[in-house]
Every structure is written in structure tokens, then in C-alpha cells.
Amino acid sequence: MNIHELNALPLDEASEALLGCCGTPWWAQQMAHARPFASAAELHDTADAVFEVMDDGHWLQAFAAHPRLGDLESLRMKFVGNDRWSAREQAGITDADEDLLRNLAEANVRYEQRFGHIFILCATGVTAGDMLAALTRRMRNDPQREAQVAGAEQRKITHLRLDKLLGVDA
Hints:
Blueprint: H1 3-8, H2 11-19, H3 25-34, H4 40-52, H5 56-64, H6 72-76, H7 83-89, H8 98-115, H9 128-138, H10 143-165
Helix pairs in contact: 2-3, 3-4, 4-10, 8-9
């Protein structure tokens, strides 16, 4: 789809398409209502503006729409609109050995216990070892700092998915 096709969609269909880019209905609805977009750049700028006013509950909802990094079973599950991109985004885990995947899964559990949400990382082009290293490093963050880092990673993922929605191979 291109920007003109996105602009032409009925409100509910536009919201549904955008939900696949960021898994919180509130964000998708705000974006759908903000149309028409003059360009992909304006779409991205609007996404950032909506992120700026998004509350904690919506951030957590967006995080929860992702499968756990490195969890192959989680990748097989269907997540609201995200299933079409999540597996490809996490392609760096496909060659990981069982020990590394187990370590990543265990670290994910510790992270969730500490911060109350799944570990979010823009995983495009990242290996399982890199994911584990980032997770381990971020465990040292205080909760407020980690919320900022996780939000920045969510933004990166969303921007990549907006490009994919528009057929831009990012």
C-alpha cells in the first residue's frame, strides 16, 4: 500500500492496518484520525507526535503485542497484526543453539519480573547473542530509565513497520 491508499481507507480499516505497526489500539486510532498524510515523512512525524502523548498503559499494551525475543513458540503465536513481521524481525535467532535460546528465555523471565513487561528490542539484524547481551546490559537500568529505552525501541520497531506497511523495504 502507498500513502494515498492508506489515506483512502475507511477509518476502521486504516486503524487496523496501523495497529499492525504498533500494537495499541489507542495509537492506531490516533494515527487513523490524523490522516490524510502528505507523505511518508509526515506519517513518521505524526507517529512520533502521538508517541509523545501516549500514556504508560498504552506503552505497556504496545509492548505486550510483541512476541518474546528468542521465544520460538511465542513467535508462532498470532499477535494483533504483528505476526506478519515479527518472525522476520527476529530472524537472527534462527541459527542460535538451544543453550543460547534457553539462556535468552530465562533472562526474559528475569527481565519481566524486574520491569513488569517483556523485553523490547528492535531485533532486525540482531543475533540471539546480541539480544542476550542487550537484555543483560539493560537489566542494570532503573525502571524509569528502562521505560525510556523500551519506548525508544518500540518507536524504532514502529517506524520500520510503517515503512513495511507502505511497501518500503527497510
